[in-house]
Design brief:
The chain has one domain: Penicillin V Acylase, Chain A. Helix content is 20%, strand content 34%. The chain is built from six helices and 14 strands. Strands 1, 2, 10, 11, 12, 13 and 14 form a seven-stranded antiparallel sheet that branches. The longest helix has 12 residues, at 170-181. The protein is globular, with a radius of gyration of 17 Å.
Length: 263
């Protein structure tokens, strides 16, 4: 995952709104979002190479998403797959704050990551590149391949666009979020970060939706959880050159609704 835009306790009908792009090699085998056969309470896509996931939700209301931390100068030899940080949370029962602190302690076992986890009541952010756990305040937030709310162009512009949708009705909200995720505009050179991958690569990776030979945005997802614990999870998948390949929509109820969402 390379872009997560989310609204926490902002929309009047949806206390949690997520819009995400997963960028990955086109050759990496992937299963579209669905309930998992081995863990039928988990709804998520699946990386068939390592069996983890980049974004998912459990019927209990647990939700998590992850991005890589981009640092072209860092060694990338950690043995564990970052996707298990999401799937382990979705399958488990440990409280979000406790789990985030466990991830913080074990973070050196993974290459650089940013992990968002929690439920409609509380969200936490943890990275192994800043050493702490952050309780996410209500608001519109963005996460790419640096720390939470780092003002990269696609994060700043994405958050501004999402903020304008916070009174939209369901279908307009979904359509608007997918429009934000589909933006292929390249940022101006003076606004690009320096993450150690070189200027041409920074340009290529600066858009919300990425297309390069062999690598790009594999899926765009919108997840809405309303005040009554109803979930809408829409995933659109893409192949090389951004060609649309499939779309799935999951609609289901959570087993229980946190008190703050029902209030």
């Amino acid at each position: 995952m390379c872009l997560i835009l989310f609204a926490h306790k902002v929309h009047p009908d949806y206390p949690l709104v997520l819009a995400t792009n997963r960028d990955e090699s086109y050759s990496r085998p992937t299963q579209p979002a669905a309930f998992w056969r081995d863990h039928p309470h988990v709804y998520a896509g699946r990386d068939l190479e390592k069996s983890g996931t980049w974004l998912g939700i459990a019927r209990s209301g647990r939700i998590a998403a992850i991005t890589n931390f981009r640092d072209g100068n860092a060694a990338k030899n950690s043995p564990r797959t970052r996707g298990e940080l999401v799937s382990n949370f979705l399958r488990g029962t440990q409280g979000p704050g406790e789990y985030a602190n466990r991830v913080r302690r074990d973070g050196n076992n993974y290459n650089g990551f940013n992990l968002l986890l929690g439920d409609v009541d509380e969200l936490f952010y943890v990275s192994n590149r800043n050493g702490g756990v952050t309780a996410v305040a209500p608001g519109v937030h963005g996460l790419s391949n640096s720390l939470l709310n780092t003002p990269w162009p696609k994060v700043t512009q994405g958050c501004e666009a999402v903020s304008k949708l916070m009174n939209a009705k369901t279908q307009d909200l979904i359509d608007g979020l997918f429009t934000v995720l589909a933006d292929r505009t390249t940022a101006a050179d003076e606004n690009l970060p320096d993450t150690g991958v070189g200027l041409p690569r920074e340009r290529t990776l600066s858009s919300a939706f990425i297309t390069t030979p062999g690598y790009g945005t594999r899926s765009s997802s919108v997840v809405l959880i309303n005040n009554h614990g109803q979930v809408v999870f829409v995933e659109r998948s893409f192949g090389e050159r951004g060609k649309s390949t499939s779309s799935v929509t999951g609609r289901f109820s959570l087993e229980s609704t946190p008190a703050s969402a029902a209030a």
